[in-house]
Specification:
heterodimer; A: 117 residues; mainly beta; B: 113 residues
Chain lengths: 117, 113
């Protein structure tokens, strides 16, 4: 099946710094990708929909100026956590849909664990 | 309002025993329903999905799920669990076969010898 990768898999940063997380569709093109956040022992919450070549659509309560999303190509979306604080520590997961497949399917990346000190 | 409810936060099952995970949903339109599994520190793997047709859906790893419209349920089952089935299981609902999903809170499955 199709593969979605994320980089880095794990990152530790100091409070106040910015962190960029990449989400790549390795063998298919994804005009739309999704970013989720998962706090420990909790479910996934959709943060935003990343659209190639246009602005991302953010879910209610998600600060667009804090979580910058750039979907510059059909295989890459990036999430930048700006001025990160300890409360931003979480597991960030992206997903991408393979609309070109015979049966549309969505694939999830392996996740990025962010720890802000 | 759309919602997905997984009533069981935690289930312990003996290896070889059967497993059933409950999922109830509330959705305005005809939903796509999914079950995902997540191993510790890992992303999500799709077990199965349902939109239409036969209400009993077969998935990977020996899992199946049954859609019951009258009960707004989509319960996941496995006849005989293996130790490797220990993981977190999420039920999710969406508007199409792929796209943004609303997830349930998850059910942690522990498998004992």
């Amino acid at each position: 099946g199709a593969v979605v990768s994320q980089h880095p898999s794990r990152v530790i940063c100091k409070s106040g710094t910015s962190v960029k997380i990449e989400c790549r569709s390795l063998d298919f093109q994804a005009t739309t990708m999704f970013w989720y956040r998962q706090f420990p022992k909790q479910s996934l919450m959709l943060m935003a929909t990343s659209n190639e070549g246009s602005k991302a659509t953010y879910e209610q309560g998600v600060e667009k100026d804090k979580f910058l999303i750039n979907h510059a190509s059909l295989t890459l979306s990036t999430l930048t956590v700006t001025s990160a604080h300890p409360e931003d520590s979480s597991f960030y997961i992206c997903s991408a849909g393979d609309s070109g497949a015979a049966q549309e399917t969505q694939y999830f990346g392996p996740g990025t664990r962010l720890l802000v000190l | 309002a759309q919602s997905v409810t997984q009533p069981d936060i935690h289930i312990t099952v003996s290896e070889g025993a059967s497993l059933e995970l409950r999922c109830n949903y509330s959705y305005g339109a005809t939903p796509y329903l999914f079950w995902y599994v997540q191993s510790p520190g890992q992303g999500l793997q799709l077990l199965l999905k349902y939109f239409s047709g036969d209400t009993l859906v077969q998935g990977i790893k020996g899992f199946e799920a049954e859609f019951k419209r009258s009960q707004s349920s989509f319960n996941l089952r496995k006849p005989s669990v293996h130790w490797s089935d220990a993981a977190e299981y999420f039920c999710a609902v969406g508007a199409r076969s792929w796209g943004k999903l609303q997830f349930g809170a998850g059910t942690q499955v522990v498998v004992t010898p």
